[in-house]
């Protein structure tokens, strides 16, 4: 999906298609994005039709409402109806035209928000049901999609880094259910290590750029708990499973070494490292340690 999909023009067209799909007035226009947008409308309708009969968590309702209100305030939605138009000397026909355009924009944005809200409510029950899914389960794809959505909504690299580490913990839990399936076990540990590297890179980069060890504190806390839990996979494992588990343990040891090096560099006032690798910035050695 390209980055222009949610441009204002396409967003307005998407709102029109949503309106039509729900029995609204048909708009006799077409756009080059219609095929793609129509597919999204179809997905939304199927989600609503398949909506599970679940009770939506009160915390989710509060969070969703706050998100919608914030979006409305940021986009200026409702402002046109909340204030009285100032008297103008312009011809009435032009004012009517501008009013009609503004009203259409407000309806379009409102329709998009309604669509987002309906989709979020419909998907929330499925997402909750997928939390315990493991590779091979029907809902595992939904579980991973929910994780990607969380990353997309994260407000900073620090938040994204912590999310990646949370996902690495989740992959570890999944690995524990795949004992005896070497291919599945190894694949999940590969995903775990990938999430670990991505999270650590974001956190160490943030720490180096800000000369602030807060991100490193999160890394060290993760490594301490994760290493102990990964070590538990060695108990009763086959030789191949133990070999694969030791690779993940070696990664955690390398991460702790990198974190300690960056912490020392920050403490002695070294500038942010220029070079980096899969674990983030590679710090220089403090003068007194050479």
Entry summary:
This protein is mainly alpha-helical and 290 residues long.
Could you walk me through the main structural features you see in this protein, from its secondary elements to its overall organization?
The protein has 290 residues and is mainly α. The protein has ten helices and two strands. Helices cover 69% and strands 1% of the residues. It has a two-stranded antiparallel ribbon with strand order 1-2. The protein is globular.
| Strand neighbour order, sheet with most strands | 1-2
**Helix and strand pattern:** HHHHHHHHHHEE
Overall morphology: globular
Strand content: under 5%
* Overall strand count: 2
Write the layout of secondary structure elements.
Elements: H1 8-21, H2 34-49, H3 58-75, H4 79-82, H5 92-129, H6 140-153, H7 157-176, H8 182-210, H9 214-231, H10 239-267, E1 276-277, E2 280-281
Antiparallel strand pairs: 1-2
Helix pairs in contact: 1-2, 1-5, 7-8, 7-9, 8-9, 8-10, 9-10
List keywords for this structure.
mainly alpha, 69% helix, 1% strand, disordered N terminus
């Amino acid at each position: 999906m390209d980055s222009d999909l949610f441009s204002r023009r396409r967003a307005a067209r998407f709102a029109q298609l949503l309106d039509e799909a729900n029995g609204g007035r048909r708009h006799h226009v077409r756009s080059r994005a219609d095929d793609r947008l129509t597919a999204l409308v179809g997905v939304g309708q199927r989600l609503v039709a398949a909506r599970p009969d679940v009770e939506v968590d009160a915390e989710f309702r509060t969070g969703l409402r706050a998100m919608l209100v914030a979006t409305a305030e940021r986009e200026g939605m409702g402002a046109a109806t909340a204030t009285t138009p100032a008297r103008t000397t312009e011809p009435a026909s032009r004012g009517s035209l501008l009013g009609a355009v503004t009203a259409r924009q407000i309806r379009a944005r409102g329709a998009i928000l309604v669509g987002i809200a309906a989709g979020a409510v419909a998907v929330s029950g499925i997402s909750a049901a997928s939390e315990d899914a493991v590779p091979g389960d029907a809902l595992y794809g939904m579980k991973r999609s929910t994780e990607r959505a969380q990353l997309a909504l994260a407000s900073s690299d620090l938040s994204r880094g912590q999310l990646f580490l949370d996902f690495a913990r989740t992959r570890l839990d999944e690995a524990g259910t795949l004992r005896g399936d070497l291919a599945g076990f190894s694949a999940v540990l590969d995903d775990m290590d990938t999430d670990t590297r991505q999270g650590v890179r974001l956190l160490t980069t943030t720490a180096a750029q800000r000369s602030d060890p807060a991100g490193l504190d999160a890394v060290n806390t993760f490594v301490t708990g994760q290493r102990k839990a990964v070590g538990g996979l060695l108990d009763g494992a086959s030789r191949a499973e133990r070999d694969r588990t030791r690779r993940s343990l070696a990664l955690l040891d390398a991460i702790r070494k990198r974190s300690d090096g960056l912490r020392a560099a920050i403490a002695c006032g070294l500038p942010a490292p220029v070079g980096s690798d899969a674990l983030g910035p590679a710090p220089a050695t403090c003068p007194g340690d050479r």
